[in-house]
């Protein structure tokens, strides 16, 4: 897979537009400076977690004796379920709303950005798809920078697009992610029968 393909896949999985209403809701009480600081901090945490998983995900899978086909099928199922929620519900419903102002690490860095779908996708890319770790890390940096930019201008985007526009973007991302998920499941099943 090329850098562009890996970046697009990770962008769809991390889903900044789908997570934007959730991030805005969690940080709604913060003035812009504290909001921006919190967003940068959470993105750094999420990127660190994802890079660690890109570097050591294969070792973790080997230690737990998880077959690559299993990882591909399980990752596809997780992505499929998340994509269904994105299409038929709302990202903000995926996560609990019990967090205080300016949360640290949870729930924005993890599980909103570096959640099960992103971690599984990173593991599948480096193990099952054979994408070099360096390329995955490059793609993660690009996607996290893009996500950071979207979140920093999130209040303006939300005002410009309105609730219906944000909802439409989330549904579109969900549809694309659904296709990626089905493809991952099919590849895993093909590997089982090889």
Looking at this protein, list some descriptive labels.
Growth Hormone, Chain: A; mainly alpha
Question: Gist?
Answer:
With 194 residues, the chain is mostly helical. It has one domain (3-193): Growth Hormone, Chain: A, CATH 1.20.1250.
What does this entry look like structurally?
The chain is globular. By secondary structure, the chain is mostly helical. The mean pLDDT is 83. The longest helix is centred in the C-terminal third of the chain and has 40 residues, at 154-193. It has 9 helices and no strands. The protein has one domain (3-193): Growth Hormone, Chain: A (Up-down Bundle), CATH 1.20.1250. It has helices at 3-14, 16-26, 32-63, 68-88, 91-94, 108-113, 116-128, 133-152, 154-193.
Secondary structure topology:
Elements: H1 3-14, H2 16-26, H3 32-63, H4 68-88, H5 91-94, H6 108-113, H7 116-128, H8 133-152, H9 154-193
Helix pairs in contact: 1-7, 1-8, 2-8, 2-9, 3-7, 3-8, 4-7, 4-9
User: Uncertain runs with pLDDT below 50, 5 residues or more?
Assistant: none
Instruction: Report the principal-axis shape.
Output: globular
CATH class: Mainly Alpha
Count of the separate structural domains: 1
Q: How many DSSP-defined strands?
A: 0
Q: What is the CATH third-level topology name? A: Growth Hormone, Chain: A
Beta-strand share of residues:
under 5%
Order of helices and strands: HHHHHHHHH
* Structural class based on helices, strands and sheet pairing: mainly alpha
Distance between the termini: 22 Å
What do the pLDDT scores average to?
A: 83
| Helix content estimate | over 70%
Cα radius of gyration in angstroms: 16 Å
Largest sheet: none
């Amino acid at each position: 897979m090329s850098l562009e393909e890996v970046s697009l896949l990770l962008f769809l999985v991390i889903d900044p537009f789908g997570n934007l209403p959730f991030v805005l809701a969690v940080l709604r009480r913060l003035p812009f400076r504290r909001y921006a600081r919190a967003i940068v901090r959470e993105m750094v945490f999420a990127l660190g977690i994802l890079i660690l998983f890109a570097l050591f995900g294969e070792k973790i899978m080997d230690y737990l004796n998880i077959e690559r086909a299993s990882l591909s099928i399980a990752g596809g199922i997780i992505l499929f379920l998340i994509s269904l929620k994105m299409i038929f519900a709302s990202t903000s419903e995926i996560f609990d709303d019990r967090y205080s102002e300016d949360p640290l690490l949870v729930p924005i860095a993890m599980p909103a950005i570096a959640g099960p779908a992103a971690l599984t996708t990173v593991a599948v890319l480096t193990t099952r798809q054979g994408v070099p770790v360096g390329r995955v890390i490059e793609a993660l940096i690009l996607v996290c920078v893009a996500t950071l930019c979207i979140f920093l201008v999130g209040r303006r985007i939300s005002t410009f697009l309105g609730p219906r526009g944000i909802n439409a973007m989330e549904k579109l991302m969900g549809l694309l992610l659904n296709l990626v998920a089905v493809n991952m499941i099919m590849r895993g099943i093909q590997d089982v029968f090889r």
